[in-house]
Design a protein that fits this description.
Blueprint (H helix, E strand, L loop, with lengths): L5 H13 L13 H7 L7 H11 L2 H7 L1 E3 L6 H9 L4 E2 L8 H17 L10 E2 L17 H5 L4 H15 L6 E2 L23 H15 L2 H4 L5 E7 L18 H17 L4 E4 L3 E2 L2 E2 L4 H11 L5 E3 L7 H4 L7 H11 L4 E2 L5 H11 L5 H17 L19 H14 L1 E5 L13 E5 L25 H8 L4 E4 L4 H8 L4 E7 L17 H12 L4 E6 L7 H4 L4 E4 L7 H10 L12 E2 L12 H8 L6 E3 L10 E3 L3 E2 L3 E3 L5 E9 L5 E11 L10 E10 L4 E8 L1 H5 L1 E2 L5 E2 L3 E7 L2 E8 L2
Parallel strand pairs: 1-2, 1-10, 3-4, 4-5, 5-6, 6-9, 12-13, 12-14, 14-15, 15-16, 21-29
Antiparallel strand pairs: 7-8, 11-16, 17-18, 19-22, 20-22, 22-25, 23-24, 23-28, 26-27, 28-29
Helix pairs in contact: 2-16, 3-16, 4-15, 4-16, 5-6, 8-9, 8-17, 9-11, 14-15, 17-22, 18-22, 19-20
């Protein structure tokens, strides 16, 4: 008998441990049959309808439901084929149609489709209405997500969702690809403007509000609309900053920063989630069973429909090269957990999946699971009862009340970063001649950004037009953004407004090498400054372009982001003082391009930044001035000790408006865990409220600290850790310290 020395046995044991050997088998995955039972609809009668219809379907018809396709609207034979193949979802490429055009197309296509569909199963009609019904001409357009986040008011997110479905629901647009709840931790990323910024807490609150707004069944009755949270998960922090490029995230970081916003949407009842187009830690997410099934369904409890992004099954073979061909890519995607696949122009995916089932590589039970999820959604939306659009309620489109909601959101989203010597609001007596210039001063598309069709809409005012309309008693002159013309025009001006930024973009079209404001714009701003006239800089962009070289010499700076159709008016109202600014940055505005640090950086990063000759940011997360002033009193704690995780601590602070104007103040509460077994962020936003405080008035704000919710953090397995120790609470310029013990 072969024997081993104890030292050799010990060595082998260590090797098993180091290479991840597990002596206890992992918990068995739920079977497809069990999943179907687990995910059964809570709506009475729906599950019976799902199972009855599923039993009538052929394999080809089941797989057809898993296809999401983009049609040629003028190709009649194509719609006949799609109907016969039982395609589950039809995605129209972006069009700037009028509401009546959409009605005609949706009605015609669905009628023709159903006439050629054996089981009369209507298709889903998804649309990418990012900040309003953006592909319906003259719809109401809100600020983009990043700008909306600057309001620190989730109600605006819910109103945006409400207005979106109010203007599109009657068209049978029943599947909306919002909200984007990726966390904006990389300023270079081309889709940064689609995020709600750096805070997962802020993102969670805004995301869940939009889900509730989109899925508000009262507004669109008898139609219902499903929201889609995206892009699950880790999409927003590519190492290169370029869209759809590799992401590396530790499991612990994934759970701490990227999971919460999706979990919030799931808890809010979101019906659809879309997968990340890129790869995380070397595995394309569309091929990751770990992320799309184990994490999303088993750990986070999602029971809805999982949608692919554009061509992303095919790209497993052609882009990521983890599959030898498209058939193998289809196998990976289905087995990872995808239900509905945006192909988008052919039925090859369906043909491949049918072949894979016939070969025995994918079970028909697995196909039944996805098909049931799709049918369940259709029944829950009432699509079988109301498959066609209606045109008798178009008076609800672009109502004054809806436009007012978008305008109010834009007013509270504009962030005043600098106001030297109280230059703003502009005094009509000393600012009778206003020169407006700059890259984005007279561009209709500028304030709305990507994912918007505004080429013919008179609603999308240029900032020059907005200023002209609001400055009735001043001479407002537009000067071409040319250095010599700016210098010449300044001779006849009292103040210069330079509107800087970038052209609209989306996805890969927004990939850039350098996030500094371009040299030509910097040169023009410097020329304006050289005239000696006060310069107001307005940033209209989807990410924080670096403006350090001119920031100190501009007398006032506004970050306007992408404030939507009503943005030009909102900016002008802030400039003339009819609106008191109240926006606050949802990200830390970097001082240089070389440092991509977030507001919730680690303590080690903080120490390194202290040794720099220049600051790491010139406008931190939560920065935002007002035309009035606010004073924060001392934080009052109900105790300095929390005894056990079932206890709580009440913190209050009195905020007083010490200025002459009424104003709104967003009160942001941050926590720092001073010592943790996993390094902790120097601060984490845990709660916020925004209130109107009248001049001379004081209001008390309260934050109740729940140890499990507010003081815990996840490990690399997603398990909550809660540890005894000291915590620092901060709000405004005040701090207080307390201790957690007795665990």
């Amino acid at each position: 008998m072969l024997t081993m020395k104890p030292s050799l046995l010990l060595l082998m044991a260590c090797l098993f441990i180091s290479f991840g050997f597990k002596g206890i088998p992992e918990k068995k995955q739920m079977s497809d049959k069990d999943r179907m039972k687990h995910e059964a609809s809570a709506i009475p009668g729906v599950e019976k309808k799902v199972l009855n219809l599923l039993a009538k379907m052929t394999l080809e018809e089941k797989v057809g439901q898993m296809v999401q396709i983009t049609p040629d609207l003028e190709n009649d034979s194509q719609v006949v084929m799609f109907g016969k193949r039982n395609v589950g979802s039809v995605y129209y490429s972006p069009h700037n149609f009028t509401i009546n055009d959409w009605y005609v197309y949706e009605k015609k296509y669905q009628e023709r489709f159903l006439a050629n569909n054996r089981l009369k199963i209507p298709f889903l009609s998804p649309h990418c209405f990012q900040h309003g019904a953006i592909y319906i001409k003259d719809a109401t357009i809100f600020p983009h997500n990043l700008t909306l986040a600057a309001t620190f008011t989730p109600r605006f997110g819910q109103e945006m969702g409400n207005v979106t479905i109010l203007e599109s629901g009657d068209l049978a647009h029943n599947f909306i690809w919002v909200p984007v709840v990726d966390i904006g931790r990389n300023h270079r990323w081309s889709r940064f403007f689609e995020t709600f910024g750096e805070s997962y807490y802020l993102c969670s609150r805004m995301g869940e509000a939009i889900v509730k707004g989109i899925q508000d069944t009262v507004i669109t009755s008898p139609y219902k609309v499903a929201a889609c949270a995206k892009h699950f998960i880790g999409y927003s922090d590519p190492r290169s900053g370029w869209d759809r490029s590799p992401v590396v995230i530790s499991d612990q970081e994934l759970y701490e920063f990227y999971v919460p916003s999706f979990k919030a949407c799931i808890d809010a009842g979101v019906k659809i989630i879309e997968a990340n187009s890129g790869e995380v830690n070397g595995i394309p997410v569309h091929a990751s069973h770990r992320l799309l099934t184990t994490l999303l369904r088993d750990e986070l409890g999602f029971k809805g429909l999982l949608n692919s992004d554009y061509q992303d099954i095919r790209k497993l073979a052609t882009y990521h090269h983890v599959a030898a061909n498209e058939k193998e890519a289809a196998y990976l995607g289905v087995m990872a957990g995808l239900d509905l696949v945006l192909t988008p122009h052919d039925l090859f995916f369906a043909d491949d999946v049918i072949a894979l089932v016939k070969e025995g590589r994918i079970s028909e039970e697995r196909i039944d699971l996805s098909t049931a999820r799709i049918l369940r959604l259709k029944f829950e939306l009432g699509l079988f009862d109301h498959p066609l659009p209606r045109n008798d309620r178009f008076d609800r489109f672009a109502r004054p009340e809806s436009i007012g909601k978008a305008l109010n959101a834009a007013r509270e989203a504009i962030v005043l970063l600098k106001n030297e010597n109280n230059l703003l609001p502009l005094d009509p007596q000393t600012s009778k001649r206003v020169l407006v210039t700059g890259f984005n001063a007279n561009k209709r598309m500028a304030t709305s950004g990507g994912w918007t069709v505004v080429t013919t809409s008179p609603k999308a005012k240029t900032i020059f037009e907005g200023i002209t309309e609001q400055f009735h008693d001043s001479k407002v002159t537009l000067v071409e953004n040319d250095t010599e013309k700016i210098i010449s025009g300044a001779k006849e001006a009292d103040v210069i407004i330079y509107v800087a930024g970038e052209d609209p973009y989306s996805e890969e079209r927004g990939n850039i090498q350098d996030v500094n404001l371009p040299d030509d714009q910097l040169g023009q701003i410097n020329a304006a400054i050289s005239t000696g006239k006060p310069v107001i800089l307005i940033m209209v962009a989807g990410r924080p372009l670096i403006i350090t070289r001119v920031y100190d010499r501009c007398k006032a700076v506004l970050w306007a982001g992408l404030p939507g159709y009503e943005g030009a008016r909102a900016i002008a109202e802030i400039l003339n003082g009819s609106v008191n600014p109240s926006g606050k940055l949802p990200f830390a505005y970097p001082y240089t391009d070389s440092r991509n640090l977030t507001y919730n950086q680690k303590y080690h990063d903080l120490q390194l930044t202290k040794n720099l000759k220049v600051p790491w940011t010139f406008a931190d997360f939560g920065t935002g001035l007002s035309y009035t002033t606010f004073s924060y009193g001392n934080i009052q704690l109900s105790d300095t000790i929390i005894n056990g995780k079932k206890a709580s601590l009440k913190a209050t602070v009195k905020v007083t408006n010490t200025g002459k104007l009424d104003g709104k103040e967003a009160v942001l509460w941050f926590l720092w865990d001073e010592v943790g077994s996993i390094t902790r962020p120097i601060r984490e936003l845990k709660y916020f409220e925004k209130e109107l405080i009248k001049s001379g008035e004081g209001k008390t704000f309260t934050f109740v600290i729940d140890p499990v919710r507010d003081l815990s953090f996840p490990n690399e397995k997603g398990e909550k850790l809660i540890e005894e120790g000291y915590f620092t609470l901060s709000v405004g310029n005040q701090t207080a310290r307390f201790r957690l013990k007795g665990l």
